[in-house]
Amino acid sequence: MTTGHRLAGKILRDRRFGVRFSDGSYPVNGGLLPESFLELDPPDHTRLRRLATPAFSPRRIDEYRARVEKVADALLDRDEFDLIADFAAPLPISVISDLLGVPDSDTAEFANYGALVAASFDTGVTAEMAGANDKVLALFDRLIAERRRRPGDDVISSLVAAEAERKLTAQEMLGTLVLLLVAGFETTVNLIGNGTRALLDHPAQWTLFKAHPELAPAVVEETLRWASPVQLTSRIAHERVDGIGEDEMVTLLIGAANRDPEVYPEAYRFDVMRVHRPEHLAFSSGIHYCLGATLARMEGDVAFRALARKMPDLRQAGPVTFRDSVVIRGLRSFPVSR
Ligand code: HEM
Questions:
Q1: Measured between alpha carbons, how far apart are the two ends of the chain, in Å?
Q2: Residue 85 gets which letter from DSSP?
Q3: Where do the H-state alpha helices sit in the chain?
Q4: Dihedral of alpha carbons 189, 216, 82, 253, sign
Q5: Kind of pairing, strands 315-316 and 335-337?
Q6: Whole-number Å distance between alpha carbons of 209 and 301
Q7: Tell me, what DSSP letter sits at residue 202?
Q8: HSE-CB for 329 with a 13 A CA cutoff
Q9: Domain extents in the chain
Q10: With contact defined as beta carbons under 8 Å apart, do 117 and 182 qualify?
Q11: Per-residue confidence at 173, pLDDT binned at 50, 70, 90?
């Protein structure tokens, strides 16, 4: 187990560590979700990640920003609401569905699935989750068949083209799509929820941000550091490294590393003016560095600016409830009024 920033970062970037045991097994997947490149070591990881990368290039994300702003503004046309259910969750759901090419008529099904997968991190796989999994795989199968007939400008279409060139198998394509869906749903909601709560709990910082909306990227980075949506990950030594034996698993406490006082002075303070050098580990580091980081940062930026602009008097309107999870740090509900 590591809690320090330097050691955690070093292990994440050390190619002598990977995500699989030497017998090829993976530590935590309950066997339900199709395998994805998050759960693979090179060379398969490299091959599959490369196929998904173009959709997340900074240029593509920039082009996409105006659409996200529209969604955020529309979601905020209300007075009393739950910040998680009515804003922080639907925004990334709508964004990733759009990016993948999931039609509006199927978005509710995918959203329900995302929520169940999220719950399964906390409760284990339930019968309800298994049923939803079958449904979503069937939905993806249908969308893939449609794109084979009529390609579009979306991630499913580009993966279908790669499959035709034998760059990935049908099963790997499904694994990639499910990963993007779950990663897109499950983390950004907590960046938006945790950041909004941090701002409301620190009125001077909220006031400063409202006067200087150009600080939005700083609010995003400080939220990622101070209230990291993904609190931990793990790596397995592929050979003996210092005191760690081959096939031993190391748990890396990202949330703790991001509050390491040796790296961040007054690490427990939420301070949007903080200089983040070195970068926090909220998006991990090394070859598995979050592929959606640019997208998530843009969504957070848009969400915080929209809240500051449209709801300058936003306040908490009841007690919050927390997600019951050691991996995911986030709120289940956050009643607010404008
Ligand atoms: C990987 C965090 C948003 C797609 C990761 C990892 C972390 C992370 C910690 C690496 C885990 C490890 O090294 O074991 C986050 C956070 C997000 C976020 C905190 C939001 C604030 C997104 C979004 C997408 C995405 C919006 C895209 C839809 C991915 C993918 C990987 C990944 C595809 C696997 C990368 C690889 O294995 O090479 N994310 N993520 N993430 N994330 Fe994100």
A1: 43
A2: I
A3: 5-13, 44-52, 58-75, 83, 90-100, 104-123, 127-149, 155-164, 170-186, 188-201, 203-211, 216-226, 254-257, 293-310
A4: positive
A5: antiparallel
A6: 12
A7: S
A8: 20
A9: 5-337
A10: yes
A11: very high
CA of 283 to the centre of ligand 1 (A): 6
Mutate to test the pocket of ligand 1, among 102, 226, 290 (most ligand atoms within 8 A of CB): 290
d(CA 164, CA 249): 37
Give the pLDDT confidence score for residue 329 in this predicted structure: 96
DSSP state of 280: P
Ligand 1 atom 22: residue of nearest CA: 292
Architecture of domain 5-337: Orthogonal Bundle (1.10)
Is the pLDDT reported for residue 192 higher than 90? yes
Which ligand 1 atom lies nearest to the CA of residue 36? 37
Task: Point out which residues pair with 225 in neighbouring strands.
Answer: none
Q: How far is the CA of 292 from the centre of ligand 1 (A)?
A: 6
In angstroms, the CA 193 to CA 246 distance is: 39
Q: ipTM value, please give it.
A: 0.99
Element housing 88 (H / E): none
Q: For residue 196, how many other CB atoms are within 10 A of its CB?
A: 28
* pLDDT, tens digit (0-9, with 9 covering 90-100), for 71-123: 999 999 999 999 999 999 999 989 998 888 888 888 888 777 877 776 776 66
CB-based burial of residue 34 (10 Å sphere; 0-12 exposed, 13-18 middle, 19+ buried)? buried
Q: Say how many CA atoms lie within 13 Å of 157 toward its Cβ.
A: 12
Question: Are residues 110 and 93 in contact, defined by beta-carbon separation less than 8 angstroms?
Answer: yes
- Sheet with 17-18: list strands edge to edge: 17-18, 232-237, 249-253
Give residue-wise pLDDT tens across range 4-17. 999 999 999 999 99
Give the integer Cα–Cα distance in Å for 236 and 15. Answer: 10
Sheet strand arrangement including 315-316: 80-82, 335-337, 315-316
Residue 311 to residue 291: CA distance in whole angstroms? 31
